[in-house]
Write a structure and sequence with these properties.
- The protein has 381 residues and is α/β, with parallel strands linked by helices.
- 42% of the residues lie in helices and 14% in strands.
- It is built from 16 helices and 14 strands.
- The strands form three sheets. Strands 6-5-7-8-9 form a five-stranded parallel beta sheet, sandwiched between helices. It has a five-stranded parallel beta sheet with strand order 12-11-10-13-14, with helices on both faces. Strands 2-1-3-4 form a four-stranded parallel beta sheet.
- α1 crosses α7, α4 packs across α6 and α7 runs parallel beside α11.
- 50% of the residues are buried.
- The model has no long low-confidence stretch (mean pLDDT 91).
- It comes from Loigolactobacillus bifermentans DSM 20003.
């Protein structure tokens, strides 16, 4: 049976992606559900939950409301809460039940915004897509609604970091190391979307010379900003010293030419399989290839940008699609929760992913910005 997980876990869903993308920006996010998704999000998908406050609520959808299609309580509760808490914006997102009954979230958002005067987003999330889909919806809406004004270009060469959430980069210092690696090479961080950044920073995103897309969840926002402000984008992550130097050179070139580019090129080798998010894992492949000349094939179980898919980066959404590739591999690099479906003949190298195994492996998440050379040595050893 397709699209089932008999043994392995599943990835965080689009509802969690929206919550994660907007968590630190001072808004109010309301998940329209009976309560299950809020529990999953708070206990498994959001590592900041116990350390940082955020206005994230659940609507408490009842059977009667779902059957009758009554959205009045959801709307009224949202309006009342917003008038009391004064968030910078409001985000409404769904789950499977609202999807089944055809809830129109953009329409509800317009009602809430009209009643409160607060910018309100309505996302047609349904819990059936991956967190990358939710990230893209949230960041693209920020690019459309928040980045309105033309602003002067920064006098210092600067970038916007797009697609930054703990679902891909955890809370292990990776984001800070990423910013530091760029700053050390003379690149100013104009805005961070959205770990350690602010909504006010995002409002000034048009001042950047180029966008750096560090996950597939930031790609739609990059395309919106390119269309609105003419800012080109580069796809890749500063993993390791050599690849970071190459990435910074690509950023300058993109800014000079106005042409977007990706450093996530395919270098397929089905003997080495890397499983995970497309930008993250393809960056690893390219950093390894530049250092050693060895390639690898990426299997991407979550939403990937079509331009990143190739013979070297393949969509593989369930166990039936994964297993044929795993059976032929001699080395597999993946979250440890994949190991039960990997052949014993293959060498398994653990690379935990917050969006997949959550807090189970939270303490083992790797900071590949500072530890890439050590990780490379482990693979070669």
């Amino acid at each position: 049976m397709k699209h089932t997980a008999q043994i392995i876990s599943t990835y965080s869903c689009d509802t969690s992606g929206v919550g994660s993308a907007l968590y630190e920006l001072g808004g109010m996010t309301v998940m329209h559900d009976a309560g299950g998704y809020a529990g999953i999000y708070s206990t498994h998908d959001e590592p900041r939950w116990y350390e940082m406050d955020s206005m994230i609520f659940i609507s408490g959808l009842t059977e009667t409301q779902a059957i009758l299609g009554d959205d009045s309580k959801f709307i009224n509760d949202t309006i009342e809460t917003a008038q009391r808490l004064h968030p910078k914006f409001i985000a409404l997102g769904g789950s499977p039940i609202p999807m089944v009954v055809g809830t129109d979230f953009p329409a509800l958002a317009r009602e809430v915004e009209h009643a409160t005067g607060i910018m309100t987003f309505g996302f047609d999330t349904n819990g059936m897509n991956s967190y990358i889909s939710g990230d893209n919806l949230a960041f693209a809406e920020l690019a459309k609604r928040v980045c309105q004004a033309e602003v002067p270009k920064s006098t210092t060469f600067s970038v916007n970091l797009l697609g930054v959430t703990p679902l891909d980069f955890s809370l292990n210092g990776t984001v800070q190391a990423m910013e530091q690696a760029l700053t050390d090479r003379g690149v100013k961080i104009q805005s961070n979307w959205a770990m350690g950044g602010t909504l006010e920073d995002i409002e000034q995103a048009g001042a950047a010379h180029v966008n750096l897309v560090v996950s597939a969840g930031g790609l739609l926002a990059a395309k919106v900003l390119q269309k609105r402000f003419g800012i080109p984008y580069v796809i890749g992550i500063p993993y390791g010293k050599a690849f970071t130097d190459k990435l910074v050179s690509a950023l300058h070139q993109a800014a000079e030419t106005g042409t977007s580019t990706s450093l996530c090129q395919p270098h397929p080798d089905n003997k080495t399989i890397i499983i995970g998010e497309s930008v993250n894992r393809l960056t690893l492949v390219n950093a390894f290839y530049d250092a050693t000349g060895a390639g690898a094939t990426v299997l991407c179980p979550v939403d990937a940008a079509p331009e990143l898919l190739s013979k070297g980066c393949l969509p593989a959404c369930d166990e039936d699609e994964l297993k044929p590739f795993l059976n032929d591999a001699t080395t597999i690099i993946a979250d440890p929760m994949y190991q039960p479906i990997c052949p014993e003949t293959a060498r398994f190298i653990s690379l935990p992913h917050e969006a997949f195994s959550g807090r189970v492996n939270h303490g083992k998440m790797r900071n590949l910005v500072t530890e890439f050379e050590d990780f490379q040595a482990e693979i070669q050893g």
